[in-house]
Amino acid sequence: MLGKVFGTLCLVACLFGFLTGNGDALGSAVLDGAKGAVDLTFSLAGMMCFWCGVMHVLTEAGIMRRLSHLLRPLLRLLFPQAAKSGEGLEEISANLSANLLGIGNAATPLALAAMEKLQRHNPKRDTASEEQITLAVLNTAGLTLIPANLLALRRAAGSPRPYAVLLPVWITSLCCSVMAILLCSIPRIVRSFGKKSP
């Protein structure tokens, strides 16, 4: 469906470009856009490869394991089953760390690895567990300290101040993370109140 929408938009743009006598400008814009897309792709791919490599080195060096121990009190509250089984916490902390750095592309494989380990202790194989849902929500609305991809996009677009968005990014990502944690904690809170009531 999306391909049809974009195809229609391109055809309409070409038609109007030729009808209004802007065929030359349209051709130049297409070539400039293609060049810009290739440049942007290479800059983003370079940044993604760099941060994926950094995360791999940190994992191999055992730093992610240490970070997992530092984050264990928080992770134990958010992922009690994973803390109990001891599986998935390292991947979850690596995922949260990648999100903190704003490199969602590097965070995705880590989230998938964490999901696989959480699935091992999921009693309902065809339904996501609460912890898997919490991880997915935090992965999507996670706290970001250094929005690396956004900064690369702004720099590639020629922004004179690519770092001007840091404060709004911190505020919005913090609000999203807090709201995500609260919403994912509601079922546990309801269950705990249900157990206490006679």
Which key phrases capture this entry?
single chain; 198 residues; mainly alpha; 79% helix; elongated
Description:
This protein is mainly α and 198 residues long. The protein has helices at residues 2-19, 23-60, 63-78, 80-85, 89-100, 104-119, 130-140, 148-156, 166-196. It has 9 helices and no strands. The mean pLDDT is 80.
Structural class determined from secondary elements? mainly alpha
Mean pLDDT: 80
Order of helices and strands: HHHHHHHHH
Beta-strand content bin:
under 5%
Helical region count?
Answer: 9
Question: What layout of secondary structure does this protein have?
Answer:
Blueprint: H1 2-19, H2 23-60, H3 63-78, H4 80-85, H5 89-100, H6 104-119, H7 130-140, H8 148-156, H9 166-196
Helix pairs in contact: 2-8, 3-5, 5-6, 6-7, 7-9
Short description, anyone?
With 198 residues, the chain is mainly alpha-helical. It is 79% helix and 0% strand. It starts with a helix and ends with a helix.
